[in-house]
Specification:
273 residues; alpha/beta; Rossmann fold; 2 domains; 7 strands
């Protein structure tokens, strides 16, 4: 097992830090969302996993249950205005309450600003920003009742936007602002609100980007990886499990003092103060 990674099907932990907590994780079918779901299940959380890919969700549920955890899934498109409220209803029907929301769903299109369409922009905000806003709004009364938590998985592009990431930087910036504002409301209502900003993480999506860059270097993935690490000036690329481990800590009782924190998990890539 390498640094930051999880054992395969290690099983739930007796008396884990999230034992009995009812958790919704969006974008849970693969990558960071999948890793977070597996990690929170290890800590005893009862999970409702959401994404568009029903088959991929079923695989994650099967992996959790094989390890002794509790999980179910709800395939939905959170870009649709009414979908987040329906997801909340599904969680209440399955488990009777909601303790934690992990907003992880959302990917935005990269490219030349002048070539990105109106649809690209609308789609970027519809899922990652408005999907999170609507889900939190629908779940807030239940989170308030149980002293729950919201964790937004955003990204360092919200702090350091770039020319190829105009949509993503704008969406992430809006999500960061939303997190800070919501955290103030959370102080009033007893709900914890924080965010993680991952840097380069070795997800399937990032592997495709690496493969594209490797094609320019004779197909050498390792050389392309080393070039990304060198240019970003980071200790290494992140793994989905790195984000999952931090998420598990933030949502644990030991981290309850954290409120409105926007934590960069990027190997040192973000240089701003």
């Amino acid at each position: 097992m390498t640094s930051g990674q999880l054992e395969r099907n290690p099983g739930t932990r007796s008396g884990g830090t999230l034992a009995g907590k009812i958790i919704i994780v969006t974008g849970a079918s693969r990558g960071i969302g999948r890793a977070i779901a597996l990690r929170l299940a290890q800590e005893g959380g009862k999970l409702l996993l959401a994404a568009r890919d029903e088959a991929a969700l079923a695989n994650v549920v099967a992996e959790i249950t094989a390890g002794g955890g509790t999980a179910t899934s709800f395939a939905t498109d959170l870009r649709i205005a009414g979908a987040p409220a329906t997801l909340v209803e599904a969680a209440l029907e399955a488990f009777g309450a909601i303790d934690i929301i992990v907003n992880n769903a959302g990917a935005t299109r990269r490219g030349d600003f002048l070539e990105l369409s109106e649809t690209d922009w609308m789609d970027g905000f519809a899922l990652k920003f408005f999907g999170a806003v609507r889900l939190v709004r629908a779940a807030w009364p239940h989170l308030k009742k149980r002293g729950g938590s919201v964790l937004n998985i955003i990204g360092i592009g919200g702090r350091t936007p770039g020319p190829e990431f105009t949509i993503g930087g704008s969406v992430n910036g809006a999500c960061l602002s939303f997190t800070k504002a919501l955290a103030d409301i959370g102080i009033r209502d007893g709900v914890q609100v924080n965010a993680i900003n991952p840097g380069w993480v070795r997800t399937d999506r990032f592997r495709k980007l690496l493969a594209s860059q490797a094609a320019q270097h004779g197909g050498d993935i390792e050389a392309a990886t080393e070039e990304v690490v060198r240019k970003a000036n980071v200790v290494r690329l992140g793994e989905p499990e790195d984000v999952a481990n931090l998420a598990a800590f933030i949502l644990s009782p030991q981290a309850r003092l954290l409120q409105g924190a926007l934590i960069d998990l990027d190997g040192g890539q973000t240089k701003t103060v």
